[in-house]
Amino acid sequence: MCASLQAIKYTPGHLRILDQLILPHESILNAQDGFHAIRSMTVRGAPAIAIVAALSLAVELSTLEPLSEEETERFIIKKLNYLVRARPTAVNLSEAARRLTNLVCQTSEGKRKAYLGAAEKMLLDDVRDNTAIGDRGAEWLLKDLPSDKKIAVLTHCNTGSLATAGYGTALGVIRSLHKLGRLSRAYCTETRPYNQGSRLTAYELVHEGIPSTLITDSMVASLLCQHDITAVIVGADRIVKNGDTANKIGTYQLSILAKHHGIKFIVAAPLTTVDLTTDTGKDIEIEERKGEEVVTFRGPVLKDGKVDTNEIKTVHIATPGIATWNPSFDVTPAEYIDAIVTENGVIERKASKCFDMTECKI
Ligand SMILES: CSC[C@@H](O)[C@@H](O)C(=O)COP(=O)(O)O
Asked: Where do transmembrane segments lie in this chain (predicted)?
């Protein structure tokens, strides 16, 4: 089997990320490079952007002349405050900044070393947590089914190795189902306008040899109606206290379709995505991106019927002059979510209309 995909490659003092716009690795030398990589979506996915932000500052710190403890603290806090402004919706970024700031403030001697250790640990922790999410989610989905039953699932956006430090969240559940020999097929949506599904999830599913089928976002109702789909599994950018969940635009409509067809709707995310400081989804800031993403399409050209990744082109696919609206995320109300899987286990929504997310942090 070929090696697993890795979006983030780090050795002390060196950070390289896979440029998800074209796919070779790009070097990140400092926090400014980290900020631009996140904002331009060269790296994307809630856990991955938090890790790249933290590690970009780690690389910058490791090249810096010795500073006093006080100067080091001021430097780190200033850079973290800058990095959190790269993208607003995924809470993992601000959660990491808050945690690293607290650590640095509470360490009296060796602040630089403490920061580097904590930032580097994020890579390992994320893979460990995602593996637990994948296994727990798969186990929960299979628990009431005959042991020889294989299931088909649908996922949206990208939640795999390319959106995390490895293994993936929703794609981690799919990976675990496949590992157990219990996955008949994973369907993935194209995920317009940025096409994380057709570009990244499809790439990863094919790379891993997981039986998979790509559909456009407009085909979901027909898929759920005509095929035997057991669950829709998505990741999250922010899960607030009552379980309302911000995720890639289009997730909300999938949850409504799943409910209509009596299909389970599952959110899979690490605890770093759970935001207990926000009560409901109404208070989540939704990033709006440039209309250009809606009216253009970017990809490799076809030469003699073959995809040529050396030549990437942007084409215009809408009538010039048309107005656009491009919210990058939407909020799925908790009442449409059946279960939320974290590394600590699965919380089911039973009779009530919402979750108490404080339960999963215990
Ligand atoms: C494990 S990542 C979960 C989410 O971050 C993912 O589904 C998503 O919405 C990514 O959005 P993106 O805009 O590509 O950063």
From this structure: none
